[in-house]
Write a structure and sequence with these properties.
270 residues, 13 helices, globular
Length: 270
């Protein structure tokens, strides 16, 4: 059985990609065969795992998640439709594979405007490899467009990373209700694993009041561990390495604890 986790928020800059990448890396390190799926056209999760030149070569020769979703009807130069086996980049981190993203996802809603079953294309594409992974992590763009809907349509759980500023926290309630509606319309149950307070320490007006309000409103849905804003988190991404391989014990400890809490909340014993 695969556990499939979507990292979702309607706002960017909340630490969503760092959580997705490092949680996936943590799962791989503790022995769970893991797949990271980058559904954000900004490709930040992809570039946290591989360099630009390596990505360009892989995208041209093997394909990306855009092929799986049918953006611009991607196919190889020979006209052969690419599948999940082709597009997956193996072992980017220990015990962890990657389905990289592509800029073409910026237009995927237009490309699939009249497509039948457009919300379940990713689920169908990944079906042949589901038994190969114990954990699948989807990094979603900061919206509820087709890529995010595809992630939600196949996920067993989702988390909402939130930075402690007013604008980031404002739409949490709306996001949760919208996901409930999408789940109902797609007839697919997805469980809310919780809210992760991230990037603590960045400049924010009324930071403490915002965190207190989140905990008061959502109670035990808010994770115990908070992730602080640290330069080494960005540095590890630029170096295409997980935070656990960077010489920052505090940052590693925070991401490790958050990862353990995610696993506990979704019912994985590790």
């Amino acid at each position: 059985m695969s556990y499939i986790l979507a990292c979702v928020n309607l706002k960017g800059g909340v630490g969503k990609t760092a959580i997705a990448v490092n949680f996936a890396a943590y799962c791989g390190q503790i022995g769970l065969r893991t797949l990271l799926v980058d559904l954000d056209p900004q490709t930040n999760a992809t570039f946290s795992c591989m360099g630009v030149e390596e990505w360009e070569k892989h995208a041209a020769e093997k394909g990306t998640v855009a092929d799986l979703l049918g953006a611009r009807s991607h196919s190889s130069a020979g006209g052969v439709k690419r599948d999940v086996h082709s597009v997956t980049k193996k072992d980017v981190f220990k015990n962890m594979d990657l389905v990289p993203s592509h800029l073409d996802l910026f237009t995927v809603d237009l490309d699939l405007a009249s497509a039948i079953g457009r919300e379940v294309k990713l689920r169908r594409a990944l079906q042949p490899v589901l038994n190969e992974y114990q954990m699948i992590v989807c990094d979603c763009p900061p919206n509820l467009t087709i890529p995010t809907q595809n992630a939600l349509a196949m996920s067993s759980h989702y988390v909402v990373p939130v930075s402690p500023d007013y604008l980031s926290s404002l739409g949490v309630g709306l996001l949760l209700s919208r996901i409930d509606k999408i789940s109902e319309e797609l007839q697919h149950e997805i469980k809310h694993a919780g809210i992760i307070i991230s990037r603590v320490g960045r400049r924010a007006i009324h930071r403490e009041e915002t965190v207190a309000a989140l905990r008061a409103t959502f109670g035990d849905k808010v994770f115990t561990t908070e992730i602080k804003e640290r330069v080494d988190v960005a540095a590890s991404a630029e170096a295409h390495r997980p935070i656990f391989e960077v010489n920052n014990g505090d940052a590693s400890a925070e991401f490790r604890q958050v990862s353990r809490e995610i696993l506990e909340r979704i019912g994985v014993k590790a």
